[in-house]
Amino acid sequence: MHRTADVTAHQPEKDRMRSFVIGGAGFIGSHLVDRLVQRGPVTVFDNLSCGRREFIQPHLTSGAAQLIVGDALDLDHLARSIADHDTVFHLAANPEARHGLLNTRLDLEVGTIATYNVLEAMRRNNVYTIVFSSSGTVYGETDQACAEEDLGNLPISLYGASKMAGEAMISAFVECFQFRAKIYRFGNVVGPRGTHGAALDFLNRLKADPSHLHVLGDGRQSKPYLFVTDCADGILFGLDHTPPEQKLAVYNLAPPDTTSVARIAELCVHASPNPNAAIHFAGGDRGWPGDVPRSRMNAARLKRLGFQLRMTSDEAVTAAVSALAEQVFGPPA
């Protein structure tokens, strides 16, 4: 980590990117910060409701990054904090899509309104470059491998609806206020420092009950899983390689293959202290209302620019379960 700080110290000040990362202490955000500190000073803006200071502590200690504890719903605080930066990375969101079923304002507030606040804070401070983390949930439920131009089906979750609203608002700010934007529609991101998701949920359940794992749905739900370091690398690759004349670029970021919930459950059981735990599927074609049971994404646009994922979906899940099992159960004996 100290080597990273030394690298930026030798860059001319004019060549150093001043990054502002909303949600930068979270799962994806902290991995992105690991890379951004190599490009210049980083400000992390996070309310720490899901993110953790320890994820970015080495960069805080070295001075490569600073942390502002704040909420994107506080527009005035956000606007004061965002001044004097070059590029804003907006990754803050509801971490669990199904939480919107219990609080139907959640995605409206932490998704749509927070995204408006980010854009307005930028406009007030003449900061015009934004990188936005969207989601494959904007494609709704479809049997096709969706490409960026495929929005024939509307989202079926409140989370997906908030992401689509955020994308539309960004497009309007690009047109009305000369913003430049990169929008990334992620697959299901997995890996170390995970704070949510099926694999972590399964492992925590197995810690509570080593003999049994209860799984929502029939296990045949399948989605593309993206390893978190591939995600962070893809974000920066698109930032660096989008043609300069393109003001708004939308990229899918996901592998072409998918992994089933049953496979994730099997890997979690195998990684647990009791590899003979029984798996019980609750039945039904999806985990909860609004869940897309099967999705695929066509990420050819980013690939045409030269970006290559290091891991397939199955490889990403296998590596993630290994890392998360150590996080839940401790290092293997």
Q: Mind sketching the topology for me?
A:
Elements: H1 2-9, E1 19-22, H2 27-36, E2 42-46, H3 53-62, E3 65-69, H4 75-82, E4 87-90, H5 106-124, E5 129-135, E6 145-146, H6 158-177, E7 180-186, E8 188-190, H7 198-208, E9 212-215, E10 222-223, E11 225-227, H8 228-241, E12 248-253, E13 259-260, H9 261-271, E14 278-281, E15 296-297, H10 300-304, H11 313-329
Parallel strand pairs: 1-2, 1-4, 2-3, 4-5, 5-7, 6-15, 7-12, 8-11, 9-14
Antiparallel strand pairs: 10-13
Label this structure with key terms:
333 residues, Rossmann fold, two-stranded parallel ribbon, alpha/beta, 18% strand, 2 domains, UDP-galactose 4-epimerase, domain 1, seven-stranded parallel beta sheet, disordered N terminus
Explain what you see.
There is one protein chain. The protein has 333 residues and is an alpha/beta fold. The protein has helices spanning 2-9, 27-36, 53-62, 75-82, 106-124, 158-177, 198-208, 228-241, 261-271, 300-304, 313-329; strands spanning 19-22, 42-46, 65-69, 87-90, 129-135, 145-146, 180-186, 188-190, 212-215, 222-223, 225-227, 248-253, 259-260, 278-281, 296-297. The longest helix is centred in the middle third of the chain and has 20 residues, at 158-177. It has 11 helices and 15 strands. It has 2 domains: 2-190 and 225-253, Rossmann fold (3-Layer(aba) Sandwich); 198-223 and 257-296 and 310-327, UDP-galactose 4-epimerase, domain 1. The two termini are 28 Å apart.
